[in-house]
Amino acid sequence: MKIAVYLTGLIIDKTETLSYIKEMFDRFASHNNLQIDYYCHFWSSENLYPYTIDYHTTKINVPWENQGSVRHAIDIFNPVDYTISNFTDTYYHFLKYYKSKYSENNWISQSINNDIDKFINKNIHSDYFVENFEYPADMFDKWWHLHVNWCQYIHVLSQAFTASQATKLIKDSNQQYDACIKWRYDVIADLITYNDKVLDAIKHCSKIENTLYTELAWEGVEWTEDLPYDINTADNDKVISLHDGWWISSLYTSHLISENLLTYYTDDILSNSKSGQHISFFNSIKNIKSNIYLTDRINSNIIRYPDTIPRDYNNRPWDYFHVLYAKNFSAKKASDYKNQLEYWDKRSQYHTIRHFNFY
């Protein structure tokens, strides 16, 4: 059997997980007589915003990629193909989102229609507003609103965008795969104990074209317990969240993801008042009419902030799961910027009357 593994998301400083992911899949492939092709999507360390500004100048930032991490990942996975996106590649998706989100707000609508061109592709610095505008405080507020919404949008959109771009690489390759596995750069797992479960999912995906497997879904926005019933029987009025750490899908579903996921996902975050990345993933996959199956939990370890991973982790992953989970996940579940993104509207913190700074 031949499978595609496509790696998604940001690496940033999570380079320690990469060699463990490669070794984990190589062992799994060898044990099950599989051939694996790797595909990678990366984010560029440049063009973080649709204007020029020092990344370290503002307290509210988009996630920043490390260029060296990208080169390191290419060396490890030797992908059949890879692509590197700028965050600014999402600008027109963002503009649609921004216009729709604030269509009833006259101040924002007017700013979008009249003022956005005064910020886009400009060099924004601490004196930019004083030097260029009669009412610098008002223009700063308009830019700041745009800036924070841009950062929020990137946080929400990035995993959907990276999945759509990586699956496009698979589609464009014209290769025939029995299954496609989405994997994040910050996830390692126990594929020894759960070998048969994962292999059965791959075999099922090779036979049934509208199929997607992952390990976790739950009701509501925040996870409290695993979904206690078949996800495909969920009532339409139920708010369901779907895990995005890894998926196994048929090649057909992978192609549908490349063609439709980004559109469905963007539409959902606009139309769904009960928003959340995982909710939009579920609604998007449901909209592409893929059957969703939940495997037993395979003890995936989300090593978002690794200190060290034991050298023999892939020999006996079950020995280390609880220690790694407690040390690297539970202690730090949220982004450093979560509160800043939620409580951004305190303008007195961001500018004074005659001199604008970002501290």
Kindly summarize this structure in a few lines.
This protein is of the alpha/beta class and 359 residues long. The chain contains eleven helices and eleven strands.
Walk me through this protein's architecture.
By secondary structure, the protein is of the alpha/beta class. The protein has one domain (2-349). Helix content is 42%, strand content 14%. Strands 3-2-1-4-9-6-10 form a seven-stranded mixed sheet, with helices on both faces. The relative contact order is 0.16.
Relevant terms:
359 residues, 11 strands, 14% strand, two-stranded antiparallel sheet, 7-stranded mixed sheet, 11 helices, 42% helix, alpha/beta
How many structural domains are formed by the residues?
Answer: 1
Q: In angstroms, what is the radius of gyration?
A: 22 Å
Question: What is the average per-residue confidence, as pLDDT, rounded to a whole number?
Answer: 86
In what order do the strands lie side by side in the largest sheet?
3-2-1-4-9-6-10
Structural class based on helices, strands and sheet pairing = alpha/beta
SSE order: EHEHEHHHHEEHEEEEHHEEHH
Largest sheet: 7 strands, mixed
Distance between the termini: 55 Å
Helix content: 40-55%
How much of the polypeptide forms β-strand, as a percent range? 5-15%
Task: Sum up the overall morphology in one term.
Answer: globular
Instruction: Please report the total strand number as a whole number.
Output: 11
Low-confidence stretches: none
Quaternary structure state of the chains depicted: single chain
Number of helices: 11
